[in-house]
Task: inverse folding
């Protein structure tokens, strides 16, 4: 029985550690595409591992571990050489596949030509860099598929990106709790209506499950669908007044990527089905006015979630409104145990 190490960590992780730093073997949004320019590079930490994003002169993107295979110096402080990065410490050159292409200090040594640095499968869509985060070296990337609301060309969308000083699981708890909209966001531009009491149910879908109010629809944050596909995400709709401009319902696709066990990268795509001139009108209104309103709503979430104690989800008294929270926690605990067992060779 062979115990396996998690890609990028050089150690095995138990179920609790996997749950804290993020489950593997799935796609995650990593960073807005616009933050990495052609010929540029930037360091990011995701799922507790330091990574280097860089583009060659033609704009092709690569994501490799921020660690030189020679002496483990960070490649992010090295020199960008177009299609490779030269480590500042001893000049070892690593390309976007993680292969050592040159060791200037000892040409012809065994390290040259060896794939010695972790390189991830990446995709770019919806103004975002996505990567498949493997559990072990044996993991095979699943096909990259965008959420339907983003893949549908009839929808226009805007990406909102933020980093929050809170565990990624707190974000998932928050979005699987629609009732907080009637309280935390009561003074917002879109969630001021409806009752402050409700009954909820869980409804299974082919891609996940709905958590929804049974006695109110289209008034406030009345439902959310948790979806499992190439990546995990939430899909929801918020009512919009006529003053918000032309178009269909206002949809949101939300994802959280763990930075480490205490910090999260938060991605929201604000979407609306609009066409022709109405598309231009809505996009203008969003940039001119609505985007600021949405950031205010996100700030309300951020302030509460960052204020929670690290063990806030350990000793609670949950009730019927929290069925969605309980469901997502059980699901992720089960996933973490399965991945920990796979690492242990069970």
Result:
């Amino acid at each position: 029985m062979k115990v396996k190490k998690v890609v990028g960590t050089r150690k095995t992780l138990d179920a609790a550690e996997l749950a804290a730093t993020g489950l593997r073997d799935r796609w995650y949004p990593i960073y807005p595409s616009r933050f990495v320019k052609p010929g540029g590079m930037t360091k990011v930490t995701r799922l507790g591992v330091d990574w280097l994003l860089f583009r060659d002169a033609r704009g092709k993107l690569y994501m490799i571990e921020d660690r030189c295979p020679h002496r483990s110096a960070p490649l992010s402080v090295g020199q960008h050489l177009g299609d490779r990065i030269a480590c500042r410490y001893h000049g070892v050159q690593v390309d976007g596949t993680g292969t050592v292409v040159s060791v200037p200090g000892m040409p012809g040594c065994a390290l040259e030509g060896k794939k010695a640095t972790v390189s991830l499968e990446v995709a770019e869509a919806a103004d975002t860099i996505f990567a498949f985060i493997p559990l072990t070296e044996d993991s095979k990337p699943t096909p990259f598929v965008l959420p339907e609301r983003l893949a549908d060309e009839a929808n226009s969308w805007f990406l909102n990106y933020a980093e929050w000083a809170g565990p990624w699981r707190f974000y998932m708890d928050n979005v699987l709790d629609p009732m907080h909209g009637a309280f935390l966001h009561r003074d917002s531009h879109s969630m001021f209506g409806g009752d402050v009491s409700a009954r909820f149910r869980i409804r299974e879908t082919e891609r996940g499950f709905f958590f929804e109010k049974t006695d109110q629809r289209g008034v406030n944050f009345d439902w959310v669908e948790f979806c499992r596909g190439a990546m995990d995400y939430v899909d929801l709709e918020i009512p919009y007044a006529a003053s918000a401009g032309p178009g269909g319902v206002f949809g949101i696709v939300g994802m959280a990527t763990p930075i480490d066990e205490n910090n999260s990268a938060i991605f929201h795509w604000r979407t609306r089905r609009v066409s022709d001139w109405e598309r231009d009108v809505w996009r203008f209104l969003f940039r001119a006015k609505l985007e600021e309103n949405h950031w205010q709503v996100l700030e309300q979430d951020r302030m509460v979630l960052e204020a929670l104690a690290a063990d806030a989800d350990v000793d609670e008294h949950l009730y019927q409104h929290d069925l969605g929270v309980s469901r997502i926690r059980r699901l992720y605990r089960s996933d973490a145990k399965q991945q920990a067992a796979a690492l242990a060779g069970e």
In short: The mean pLDDT is 93.
